Amino acid sequence: MAREMVRQGGRSARIQSEVHRTVRDMLKTMDRGAITVPMIAEKSGVTPSTIYRRWGDLSELLADVAVARMRPVADPEDTGAMGSDLETFILQYAEEMSSKVGRSMLADVLGSMEGAAAGRCCQFTYDHLETLRERALTRGEKAFDVSEAIDAVIAPIIYHILFRDRELTIDYCRSLVSRFLEKCAGA
Amino acid sequence: MAREMVRQGGRSARIQSEVHRTVRDMLKTMDRGAITVPMIAEKSGVTPSTIYRRWGDLSELLADVAVARMRPVADPEDTGAMGSDLETFILQYAEEMSSKVGRSMLADVLGSMEGAAAGRCCQFTYDHLETLRERALTRGEKAFDVSEAIDAVIAPIIYHILFRDRELTIDYCRSLVSRFLEKCAGA
DNA sequence: CGGCTAACGCTAAAAAATTGCGTTAAGGTG
DNA sequence: CACCTTAACGCAATTTTTTAGCGTTAGCCG
What we know:
The structure is a homodimer. Chain A is mainly alpha-helical. Chain A is built from 9 helices and no strands. In chain A, α1 packs across α2 and α2 (37-44) crosses α3 (48-55). The longest helix of chain A has 23 residues, at 117-139. Chain A is elongated. The relative contact order of chain A is 0.10. The A-B interface holds A 32-33, 57, 107, 110-111, 113-114, 118-119, 121-123, 126, 147, 150-152, 154-156, 158-160, 162-166, 176, 183 and B 32-33, 57, 107, 110-111, 113-114, 118-119, 121-123, 126, 147, 150-152, 154-156, 158-160, 162-166, 176, 183.
């Protein structure tokens, strides 16, 4: 059979979720640099070789867990207008990403070169913004461009989180959003 | 003696530069995931324990090398006007950072949590922009704000390099600069 | 139900990381 | 300049992590 077969149920799935859960637990209580594959294996009740074979590497596993955590469970909140929709989403986004776990997830996602972790993760952001845009269009509002929103709002937030060169206050995030919306309206 | 003593000359410095050179060489010819501390040690003529004791970790060593490479050797080129100064600098910056080695340096710098690698590296960018700003002021031009330049131009470039969600063309970088300069002029 | 094989466990071997201890050589001092 | 202190290194033993072979288990399909 030529088709590549990938099991997605039963034991395989059970192990994946158990390992993921273990990693999430460990990230809460201990330092990321102290986590090792054998430790994860023991706490999950799995052999290390299973983890190595399946994920290849600690950084790949961490990236996989991070992407799974970032995967949104619901659409962004509908506040009734595009401006408040965007602001609400951005404030929540900034708070999540700048938290300790958020920072860790970002580092993990960017730390894996092999998988498409980074791409998948920023796709989530793109989709959310696209949802807001379509919602605005449905309302008859003049909607923003998603790529421009990423450049004007998301990119600065991520930059400052990664390089720790500026405190990410609520006011600052709000000003990013409002300046972006003004520019849209003026165009 | 209470004062912390750090040796900076002689053998210690020789080893540092030798190890750095070895790492740079290896990054050119082989994949980053394949580089190990014992390999670096052998090629540098040093024992692994020396590297572990001094840098603590492979990722810390890579970050150290990356920061050293990013340290600018000269001020940005003076083209006679602020607009062209900024565009010239940004285009060069984008090309360096989006190259294979640039991407690797970024990943290495962001991969080390301990040291202040990320902070030092983005300080270089800040300093360069500050130089351009002061140069503009000296000429009597209406200068841009450095923090705003980072948000509007640098951050998007870094974002797209890290997440690989968009091709970083010359035209795109130029449009970031020109839009930023227009916004400055209009303010 | 029965065959196929992806995915796992176990174990041994290889590689990497850690640690103790003696030695070398910066950098300061009399 | 000779001497002293100790940061930084080399070496080697130990521990831990990673890799690889091989038999076994259990999804998925006909």
